[in-house]
UniProtKB/TrEMBL annotation:
UniProt-recorded Gene Ontology molecular function terms: ATP binding; protein serine/threonine kinase activity
Record-given protein name: non-specific serine/threonine protein kinase
Protein localization: Cell membrane
Keywords: ATP-binding, Cell membrane, Glycoprotein, Kinase, Leucine-rich repeat, Membrane, Nucleotide-binding, Phosphoprotein, Receptor, Repeat, Serine/threonine-protein kinase, Signal, Transferase, Transmembrane, Transmembrane helix
Top-rank taxon, per record: Eukaryota
Organism ancestry: Eukaryota, Viridiplantae, Streptophyta, Embryophyta, Tracheophyta
Length: 206
């Protein structure tokens, strides 16, 4: 894809890329919606439901319009439906490992997969997009992980854990072109909206 992967944008330095890449809050929100739509299709609209099993930033590709596409179905699994049209866990002859930090905990205890595993992956992906931190970040030790790190930060501290690039997003750059008398008011309104939406997105995963 012309704009690489979400991984390239969230962690450009890790790829040896010196180019400055920034995703605005709105771009991140649109990517999150694109990925959610892809999972909705895989789980509920395919003739045979598909569980991806390894959803992570490097498997989310961005096209020329920054539309997100879920890729790499190397360890995906097909599911059967019950007569009530609900999903059944599907046993696999090989263990599903996924990627450390993203794989659902139950995958380490059994060889059964379900759509719930993808939803867990999606929650971790969403938190990584909001904070700019990997689930394997060195600060996450003992009982601290990305999930409870964000849960504790709900309410007043949510801006403190948000990716600092939010402060330099494209919407703010556009505000810089307006008259000084209106600039502070617009910036305060933008920060309030980002705080509100970030708070709501974190609540989804907790």
């Amino acid at each position: 894809m012309s704009n690489g992967s979400l991984e390239d944008w969230l962690h450009p330095g890790d790829q040896g890329n010196t180019q400055s890449r920034k995703l605005s809050f709105l771009e991140r929100l649109n990517i999150a919606i694109d990925v959610a739509s892809a999972l909705q299709y895989l789980h509920h609209q395919c003739p045979t439901p598909i569980v991806h099993c390894d959803l992570k930033p490097s498997n989310v590709l961005l096209d020329n319009d920054m539309t997100a596409h879920v890729s790499d179905f190397g360890i995906s699994r097909l599911l059967s439906r019950s007569t009530k049209n609900s999903f059944q866990n599907q046993s696999s002859s090989t263990a599903i490992k996924g990627t450390i930090g993203y794989a659902a905990p139950e995958y380490g205890m059994s060889m059964k997969v379900s759509t719930h595993g993808d939803i867990y992956n999606y929650g971790i992906l969403l938190l990584e997009m909001l904070t700019g931190r990997r689930p394997t970040d060195e600060i996450f030790k003992d009982v601290l992980n990305l999930h409870n790190f964000c849960k504790v930060a709900l309410r007043e501290k949510v801006v403190e854990i948000a990716d600092p690039i939010f402060l330099y997003e494209k919407e703010a750059e556009q505000i810089g072109n307006v008259e000084a008398s209106c600039r502070n008011e617009l910036m305060n309104g933008l920060e309030h909206k980002i705080r509100e939406y970030t708070n709501n997105l974190i609540k989804i995963t907790t």
